[in-house]
Design brief:
homodimer; about 140 residues; mainly alpha; two-stranded antiparallel ribbon; about 5% strand; globular; DNA-binding
Chain lengths: ~140, ~140
DNA sequence: CGGAATTTGTTTGCTCCCCAAACAATCTCC
DNA sequence: GGAGATTGTTTGGGGAGCAAACAAATTCCG
């Protein structure tokens, strides 16, 4: 019965994919969570982003963001610059070390993505993402 | 870029589905996590199951199981009976209250499942589950 | 038979993610 | 200029997950 429940299969799959992500990084002697990776990518492509904007883009609460930013900043990958125009916000940005690290992380993520999608054709992968997005959009916000 | 990463879309979708699950129960004045529901279903269909067997079936560590069982037992939905044949194991089972509660929970889950799959045809839902299982099976264990 | 190895459930310790509520600082709008 | 909104942080709470260590019980073998 459980194997026919979308929510259950989704949860189990997500758990397995998370484990693969962690294993991929561990084998490379690196450590990063999926949340940290997503954050780094978003900050790189949107330098100067505020924490609120970032939290919205990631779909998480702004208070959830704080410890993640703290960790990345402590690792020297990211900085909170004070915004000249708005004293409340922080302009987030990657350090040079952050840019460099992200380039390496992206390669690991690419290998990870390739592995988990290795049982699917390119068309199936696109279809899967499309179906997942449809499910996501029907959930109660 | 992130929207084309399977892992990212999977994580976001799972998060939205989890929120829908929680909202469905909250609106009905009930409280249950997806993990608790999965556990209850497995115990109902496999009365007398040991904790190790249950942990394996759920794909989690046996130490992770303990607090979940404690909660359900504290709510009077589940019991740990001592096995007559093997003194190490506990024979898990639902109480009459647990059976009754699970029947109600199952209805809520059915409504939740119907909602999240409401953007998909029956064939698409089956396809989605099939693709998710393929992804799950390729992940590093 | 009897000791060694294994299995099971628990506890402890650690990590991550998530939210809600409260607070000070800052900005915006009247 | 003051009221109200926004931003980042802190605090408090919860769920989920793993690893390592332990006692109790069972199994395996010599």
């Amino acid at each position: 019965m459980l194997p026919s429940l979308l929510g259950y299969v989704l949860r189990r799959t997500q758990s397995a994919v998370f484990a693969d992500f962690a294993a991929t990084f561990a084998r490379a002697g690196e450590a990063l969570t999926p949340a940290e990776f997503g954050l780094l990518v978003l900050v790189e492509r949107n330098a100067g982003l505020s924490q609120m904007a970032l939290a919205r883009a990631l779909g998480i609460d702004r208070s959830t963001l704080v410890p993640i930013l703290n960790r990345l900043q402590a690792r020297g990958l990211l900085v909170r610059r004070s915004s000249p125009t708005d004293g409340r916000t922080h302009a987030l940005g990657l350090t040079p070390a952050g840019e460099k690290a992200l380039a390496k992380f992206a390669k690991l993520v690419a290998a990870h993505e390739k592995r988990i999608a290795s049982g699917l054709s390119a068309a199936e992968t696109r279809k899967l993402i499309e179906l997942l997005e449809k499910v996501r959009d029907k959930a109660i916000p």
